[in-house]
Amino acid sequence: MKLEKIERKEVNGSILLVLPKYIGDAINTTPTIDMLRTLFPDKKIILLVRAYLAPIFERDNRYNVSVMIDHRYTAKSRLSMIKQARLIQSHDCELAIVMRNSFSDALLCWLSGIRYRIGYANEGRSFLLTHAYQLHPYRHYLQRYACLANEPFGRPFDEMPQTYLFAKNLNQNKQNEKLKLGIYFGGKNKGLRHYPSDLAIQALLKIGAAIDCEFLIFGDKTEGHENSVLAEALERNHHDVEDLSGKTSLIELVDNIASVDALLTIDSGPLHMAAAVETPYVAIVGLGTSPWSMVKPKGHLGVDLFANGLGLVDEDLIRDITPDRVLAATLSLNLSHRNKPPQFAGQQCANE
Prior knowledge:
The protein is of the alpha/beta class. Helices cover about 30% and strands about 15% of the residues. The strands form two sheets. A six-stranded parallel sheet has the order 3-2-1-4-5-6, sandwiched between helices. Strands 9-8-7-10-11-12 form a six-stranded parallel sheet, with helices on both faces.
């Protein structure tokens, strides 16, 4: 059944976007935010986010959005579904796009009395949405989100913008001939996505011998042990290294990734940060949580190393990506000639 087109001129109130809970997924909604700002240049756009995501969107310098914390999930100031809905009601929201395929988020928007409620017809929630679309199972995540800002309005866009995050350049006043390589291989907490430490050490030592560089290792406190093993191996071999495990906030991590010359990373939030701040990357991908073809960053900034061996042991699949492959991919980025382009500050134009 074809759903009725929403006329933009009939949307008089604020616009609510319910963002996904994971960092990479939330970053992948930025093309959708860009499209909505183009469609509704004068409307208030509110992003409903988990508390830990708020900082990277609160300093937005491109989309002119407001950020609302979803207090249903904050430990110290938890709100019930009804109270969160009342808070949304106070912002006169007339249109909502529910990015997460969850029943509770659709129910929240229904309880908030929002006139137009857009999302995918998953989790038995179609009756809570005014515009419930069938989810194409083979569509890239970026396009899944973007379609929710295109289909309801008569498809005014032929293509979506790139992902984008605002970032500060931490190297602006520094004069250093050495290249900076960011490292994020995760820890045991990343399960089958973690790049094993023995292979990681070999890869980094090969890169350090081939490139005059310093290493910045990223991670949270739970990844501290694995990262300390990498840092100690690099120090023993007289390479410059700084272990930032547990020492950066989410917003500082974005700035650091924007300031390195390249990021070596697994399939993770930092990978999508790199794509959004235009930092070249090497993605080391074993068995992920979603098919790689549906989550890989768009564009040509990076090199994807996908485990494509014949092994049957899930834990060992990522070992198909050898240190020599990681070295070759890093060298192929041609970092010695890199001049990072300024982040584009314009907006994608919609077809009238």
